[in-house]
Design brief:
By secondary structure, the chain is of the alpha+beta class. Helices cover 28% and strands 29% of the residues. It has 6 helices and 9 strands. It has a 9-stranded mixed beta sheet with strand order 7-8-6-5-4-3-2-1-9, with helices on both faces. The relative contact order is 0.18.
Length: 219
């Protein structure tokens, strides 16, 4: 049995990273978070009549959605290297899991570019948390990892995501056409943000545990 004063962060330091905002905490997803994360997923994260994601993963029936989600998160962790990494941050309001906010980098030491993606449980929409959690990881990237560019994207009918990008100061960066659901054509608006253009929200993200895991990010 592991002594109570020890954790896996001793050997996988990214698990010791913590971001805090006025209302939320963001921590890298661990196995002990997965039950709560899946509960939120299964409760619904968007109107089934709409599809905000490039991969229509939430259309899958429960018997496929659960194992596919587990494989995705386990594979994301296992495949992350300093050259190509993704951190899925579990987002909590108090003790309640409300969503997941991803931050990714490829050849980050050279490109100084990150990308983001996220989902928020449907029960937690329209509280400003989508903006707050994206602002948290982008501030972390710019102010602590010294990123010079943050990229994102949303389908043109995903007004909520586009509004988050607008509030934070992103600018348009072209479009691409994708098959969203089988046989469904959709246009994605690509977006980009640089540090000097970011619209700060009146607070600074609080970061704990970065020195121990800097090598995870290739810096």
């Amino acid at each position: 049995m592991t002594p109570p004063d020890r954790s896996l962060a001793e050997y996988w330091p990214i698990f010791g990273l913590r971001l805090a905002t006025p209302e939320l905490t963001l921590t890298p997803l661990q196995d002990e978070d997965l039950v709560e994360v899946l509960d939120v997923v299964l409760a619904g994260i968007h109107d089934p009549a709409q599809m905000p994601f490039a991969l229509a993963w939430t259309d899958a029936p429960r018997e496929e959605l659960v194992p596919s989600s587990l494989r995705f998160y386990w594979n994301t962790r296992a495949s992350s290297t300093p050259q190509a990494w993704t951190v899925p941050f579990v987002v909590r309001a108090g003790a309640q899991v409300v969503g997941v906010q991803d931050l990714s980098g490829r050849a980050f030491a050279v490109t100084r570019t990150v990308s983001t993606g996220s989902w928020l449980g449907a029960a937690f929409h329209r509280r400003g948390w989508g903006t707050e959690m994206r602002s948290a990881v982008v501030q972390f990237a710019f102010d602590h990892l010294k990123a010079q560019r943050a990229e994102s994207g949303a389908f043109v009918d995903n007004a909520a995501s586009l509004r988050v990008s607008e509030k934070l100061g992103y600018s348009d960066n072209g479009t691409r056409v994708a098959e969203r659901r089988p046989g469904e054509r959709a246009v994605e608006q690509r977006l980009v943000l640089e540090p000097g253009a970011m619209v700060r929200q009146g607070w600074a993200v609080q970061v704990r545990g970065l020195p121990a895991c800097q090598s995870f990010f290739g810096i």
